[in-house]
Amino acid sequence: xxxxxxxxxxxxxxxxxGGGFFVRGLWMLGKSPRLQQPLVRVLPHIVDTVLxxxxxxxxxxxxxxxxxxxxxxxxxxxxxxxxxxxxxxxKRGRSQGQRAFFFVAALLAFAYxxxxxxxxxxxxxxxxxx
Length: 130
Prior knowledge:
The structure is a single chain. The protein is 76% helix and 0% strand. It is mainly alpha-helical and 130 residues long. The model has no long low-confidence stretch (mean pLDDT 96).
């Protein structure tokens, strides 16, 4: 698979993953029973696995790795924050208020990750100002 094909696959999975998280977060806030549907519970794991696999493949092909390339390190740290906040929002938050807080925090982390990827700068959204 070529780098460009992997990049398109990766970007498509980013859109599906982020959009899916947003919808599931809204369902969580509305206490929708849709969150318990089997496809809603399984599909995000499939999309995120393909997303991670394409990221690793692109890193190998381009020989750019986290902890060697600053913006990739920032993206990885942002990803860990996104996963932690997303888990608190959708599964582990003790109150609706706590879940809402972590949902917003996860969305902000997601936006940071995307801006880091687009700008190729650890500054993320501030890269266009600096």
